[in-house]
Amino acid sequence: MKIIRDPHEMRAFGAGRRTALVPTMGYLHAGHLALVAEARKHAELVVASIFVNPSQFGPSEDFSRYPRDEAGDLAKLASAGVDAVFMPSAEAVYPSDFSTWVVPEGLVNRLCGASRPGHFRGVATVVTLLFRMTGCDVAVFGEKDYQQLAVIRRMNRDLWLGVEIIGAPIVRESDGLAMSSRNVYLNGDERERALALSRALGAIRDAAAHEKSVEALLARGRSLLEHVELDYLEIVDAATLEPLVRLDRPARALVAAKVGKTRLIDNLAL
Ligand code: AMP
């Protein structure tokens, strides 16, 4: 497994071979490794990137304390059989006079975009840069970040980036909590309370078997979210992310909440 820090070297590495990219911010768990396994099905070379992207964090968010474990991550990626790990420095990605951003509109005004202004500008820009630096043909993203996946699909189409975008299902702990690098922040009591997110989504999915009113389904979900600080609970069109009134097409329930100081997200297909 090659470790590459220089973007020029990265670009040369995959040249001429079908390459799949799995972008991550490190502190890897089984959810990330499932993306690597998915990537393997679509390409000859699999590259995982590890880059904690400063531009997608707000000023009061957790950039400086975001968990990092380079040695552990490299061991996991080596066992998962990736061909290369791309770990550029912040200076290589954002030179001091960097001044060109990818600013998505539309999809980003709601859900996580509403509570994290500038977040998707940072995501869209770094994903574009990672696509260009790796020259990837395919990129795999988790449905865990459902709005992010939608933003990236649309950006890829709008800007003719020409990458095949693959979405992979959410990997969960045995009790239902969606795996996340940020789960490490949770203490024992918070870890217990965090289960409310997946339980609320599960209750909505179960109720959706007979109840088609979105307001009634949201009320059912909210009743299970009393012990977390709810940011949003929404049921939207699975493709456009527009809010629905009735469940009359493929839909997605999405939730974001703070548990203690930790912001968690989760979602489920309805
Ligand atoms: P992150 O390192 O949190 O930026 O995530 C990197 C990639 O892994 C993104 O495409 C995420 O959607 C994906 N991911 C994170 N957690 C999970 C999970 N529990 N299941 C599936 N994919 C995930």
List keywords for this structure.
270 residues, six-stranded parallel sheet, three-stranded antiparallel sheet, binds adenosine monophosphate
Condensed summary:
The chain has helices at residues 7-13, 30-40, 70-80, 90-93, 111-115, 119-134, 146-158, 188-193, 195-207, 214-222, and strands at 2-4, 19-24, 45-50, 84-86, 138-142, 164-168, 229-237, 251-259, 262-269.
Description:
- A hairpin with a 2-residue loop joins strand 8 (251-259) and strand 9 (262-269).
- The chain is globular, with a radius of gyration of 19 Å.
- With 270 residues, the chain is an alpha/beta fold.
- The chain is built from ten helices and nine strands.
- The strands form two sheets. Strands 1-4-3-2-5-6 form a six-stranded parallel sheet, with helices on both faces.
- It has helices at 7-13, 30-40, 70-80, 90-93, 111-115, 119-134, 146-158, 188-193, 195-207, 214-222; strands at 2-4, 19-24, 45-50, 84-86, 138-142, 164-168, 229-237, 251-259, 262-269.
- Helix 6 (119-134) crosses helix 7 and helix 9 (195-207) packs antiparallel against helix 10 (214-222).
- It binds adenosine monophosphate.
- Adenosine monophosphate (AMP) binds next to helix 2 and strand 5.
List ligands, each type once.
Answer: adenosine monophosphate
> Based on CA inertia axes, which overall geometry fits?
globular
Helix content: 25-40%
Unreliable stretches covering 5 or more consecutive residues: none
Distance between the termini: 40 Å
* Rg, nearest Å: 19 Å
Structural class computed from helices and strand pairing: alpha/beta
Topology, number of strands: 9
User: Largest sheet, if any?
Assistant: 6 strands, parallel
Mean pLDDT: 97
Going across the biggest sheet, name each strand in turn: 1-4-3-2-5-6
Portion in beta strands: 15-25%
- Written as H for each helix and E for each strand, in order along the chain, the element string is EHEHEHEHHHEHEHHHEEE
Number of helices: 10
